[in-house]
Amino acid sequence: METKVSPSTARAKAELLAGGAVKVPKDSRLPFLPSRSTAGPGAGSTAVVFSFGNTRAKKSISRDEGEFELLRDGDEMSILRNGEVFIAGVSLVPTLYHAPHQAFINIDSTCIMDCKFCATPRLNEGITKNLTDEKIIDMVKDASRKEGFQSVSFTSGVPSSPAMAVRRMAGLVSATRKLFPRTAIGVEPYVTRPDEVEMLKEAGADEIKLNIESFDRDIFEKVCPNRDFDTIMHMIIHASEVFGKNRVSSNIIYGLGETDENVLEGVRVLANTGAVATLRALRTNQYNAPELERALGALIPVTAERMLRLAEEEKKILQSYGLTTLGFKTMCHSCLSCDIVPFWDV
Ligand code: SF4
């Protein structure tokens, strides 16, 4: 199957994602506010989504230094590396909330689960937001009036119990569904009971993301000390029955010390249930690096080659199960910004 981007663009995207920040010169004004995400791999950093060659990449930006540099020449923009043009024909994509074309809202950044890779609960007060349901619905309405609005997604930490967080999410899905009967809605909860999956579907969610995080059981136990691997797998299997094929996704983070075989075994197990893995290279920053090193020891940074190789292998597995990333309308497979996306990029 044809991909949406050329091999050289996919390679450049992988190198950009694997590399350091993009320096945006102090005298260069951004046409809109950068994204200050409270969830996802860029949580806690100031980031911008760059578009080039029919794909996108979200990168931390810095006004002082960076491995890459944004160059403006009139209306044209390029990303430089070592003073040379690395990617030409670059444009900046606005994020409605967190992601391009989506109101992807983190309902609550507070979390008791203590997953070691997650920066979200470690963000300081200034970044963490206290959002009421009313405010969240106002944010969805606000996003819906903006150009390019396509979908709504909700994620959440677990401030007290998983059940309460899911119940709140279902209420927000239901309110959103009433306002927007035809807009795709995605949810990324931590569910522990099958009826919670059904509650979200009945509230009006179209797609669900239940993150297994790592298929290496030893690593999982070290990085997700308060979550249960078997419960998550059970929920993924149930979600695939409730939501259907190509409507369920699940993050597998790589770069935690696992092998490629282990990652791809995870892709296969998920595909066998009808779920599509989101393969995500580990990103470290000042919020998660100390905890990760305490749990796992020194980590080897993920290379662009590994990103491309794993995405290509995932594509072959998904094809053999009749699955694809291309049908997703919400969350990461449609956003494209943080990962090499099989079928789109490779
Ligand atoms: S790929 Fe996922 S985590 Fe990254 S910006 Fe898009 S929606 Fe957020």
Describe this structure in words.
The chain is of the alpha/beta class. It has two domains: 7-93, no CATH class; 98-335, TIM Barrel. Helices cover 34% and strands 21% of the residues. The protein contains ten helices and 15 strands. It has helices at residues 7-18, 133-144, 162-179, 194-203, 217-223, 229-243, 260-273, 289-296, 304-320, 331-335, and strands at residues 22-23, 35-36, 46-52, 55-62, 68-73, 76-81, 84-87, 91-93, 98-99, 102-106, 151-155, 184-188, 207-209, 248-254, 276-281. The strands form two sheets. Strands 1, 2, 3, 4, 5, 6, 7 and 8 form an eight-stranded mixed beta sheet that branches. Strands 9-10-11-12-13-14-15 form a seven-stranded mixed beta sheet. Strand 12 (184-188), helix 4 and strand 13 (207-209) form a beta-alpha-beta unit. The mean pLDDT is 94. Bound molecules: iron/sulfur cluster. Residues 40-41, 58, 98-99, 104, 331-332, 335, 337-338 line the site of iron/sulfur cluster.
Summarize the structure.
The protein is of the alpha/beta class and 346 residues long. The protein has ten helices and 15 strands.
List keywords for this structure.
single chain; 346 residues; alpha/beta; TIM Barrel; 2 domains; eight-stranded mixed β-sheet; seven-stranded mixed β-sheet; 15 strands; 34% helix; globular; binds iron/sulfur cluster
CATH topology of the largest domain: TIM Barrel
CATH class of the largest domain: Alpha Beta
Low-confidence stretches: none
Q: Structural class, from secondary structure content? A: alpha/beta
| Strand percentage | 15-25%
Tell me which ligands are bound: iron/sulfur cluster
CATH superfamily of the largest domain: Aldolase class I
Fraction of residues in H or I helices: 25-40%
Overall shape: globular
Number of helices: 10
Order of helices and strands: HEEEEEEEEEEHEHEHEHHEHEHHH
Overall pLDDT score: 94
The CATH architecture of the largest domain comes to: Alpha-Beta Barrel
End-to-end gap: 10 Å
Largest sheet: 8 strands, mixed
Count of the domains: 2
